[in-house]
Amino acid sequence: ETGVTQTPRHLVMGMTNKKSLKCEQHLGHNAMYWYKQSAKKPLELMFVYNFKEQTENNSVPSRFSPECPNSSHLFLHLHTLQPEDSALYLCASSQEVAGGYYGYTFGSGTRLTVV
Amino acid sequence: DAKTTQPPSMDCAEGRAANLPCNHSTISGNEYVYWYRQIHSQGPQYIIHGLKNNETNEMASLIITEDRKSSTLILPHATLRDTAVYYCIVRPRNNAGNMLTFGGGTRLMVKP
After folding, report:
1. How far apart are CA B42 and CA A52, in angstroms?
2. What pLDDT sits at residue A100?
3. Looking at beta carbons, which residues of chain B come within 8 Å of A88?
């Protein structure tokens, strides 16, 4: 257990479904992230939230919609996904102090399969 | 972030030292070298970081060359559980908006 918990661990969804991924951190961090890891590709940063405000969106399609209701919780809402969106989705958190980001900690990820 | 270059894969015998190289020839003076590893289907795990001095912790040792253009992560007695992808990342320690970004890493296979 790293202090960053992701649920569910595995998810299979159809292209017309709507589902949500959940991330919760118990580390008191104030920044949270979504990363995507497709097969045989490096991790790709998707979204960044700092003090609940989205500070970065790396040209992610609108079928991915993040939500950060507080500094401990992060969601990724999914709708009308494509099979190529199948991947491991990782959540991470860190502490922002004076402009620097420390203590990156990752969850175990959600393995998403779109059918 | 400065670009890093790592071999795509390496093998190591169980119980032997695993030495994972990383080239970062364009590293800037304020950039640290970080190492993370990712065991299959899990999130990346922090291992160690350093600026210019060699560093050691309970997981590994980090050797940085004097010109800081390359480094080596050493796992002194590799076990089967050390089989993972190891990522070498250089980034400033204090830089707003500077997020952790990953390259391809080195896939280390520890064999019995």
Report:
1. 25
2. 66
3. 41
CA distance to partner chain A, nearest, from residue B47 (Å): 11
Q: Would you call B95 an interface residue with chain A, using a CB distance cutoff of 8 Å?
A: yes
Comparing CB atoms, the residue among B43, B94, B99 nearest residue A2 is B43
Q: What's the gap between Cα B14 and its chain centre? A: 19
Q: Is A108:B42 a contact under the CB 8 Å cutoff?
A: yes
Give the integer Cα–Cα distance in Å for A103 and A95: 6
d(CA A100, CA A79): 34
CA B26 from centroid of its chain's CA atoms: 16
Tokens 């951190």 label which residue?
A25
**Which tokens sit at A98?**
């004076």
Task: Indicate if the pLDDT at residue B54 is higher than 80.
Answer: yes
Q: Which segments of B1-112 does DSSP mark as H helices, in order? A: none
- CB-CB under 8 Å, A100 with B95: yes
Strand (E) positions, chain B?
9-13, 18-23, 31-38, 45-50, 55-56, 61-64, 70-75, 84-92, 106-111
Identify the residue among B30, B87, B100 best suited for mutation to test binding to A, counting A beta carbons within 10 A and taking the highest.
B100
Per-residue pLDDT, averaged over A50-66, amounts to 81
- Closest Cα in chain B, distance from residue A15 (Å): 23
> What's the pLDDT at B94?
60
**Cα–Cα distance list, B17 to B53, B61, B77 (Å):** 20, 11, 5
Nearest to B94 by CA among B4, B28, B43, B3: B28
Which residues on chain B are in Cβ contact (under 8 Å) with A98?
Answer: 94
